[in-house]
Amino acid sequence: MKQLESKQSWPQLAESPRQLAYLEAHFTNAAAPLSRTLLEAVDASHFSLGAWVEALLVLSQWLEARGLVLCIEDQLAYTECACAAAGAGASLSDLPSLVQDLLQAYGCERAVKK
Length: 114
Description:
It is built from six helices and two strands, in the order ααααβααβ. By secondary structure, it is mainly alpha-helical. The chain has one domain (about 1-114). Helix 4 runs parallel beside helix 6 (about 95-105) and helix 5 (about 70-85) packs across helix 6 (about 95-105). It is globular and about 35 Å long.
């Protein structure tokens, strides 16, 4: 887990500068359980780390546009729910689109006003 707490590993894992910035902002020097939670969720899903980061960015933008906040742990949990909703056909789906669809259909009840 130490390598994930270092900025040196993020460029190899990120698929774009936007993803790199997100990883650095939220997971560099984060508590080990948070980094571990992200990686375990990615490993348990059919989606890449890049797809996860893009989905988290979609969620972050949705929250920001509505003046809401949601802790990163709950953002990871919401994204896990999107993975579960995809079911067996997950490899045929786009995780950021799944998150967007869930947000449009159900919102995010744990989010609170800033």
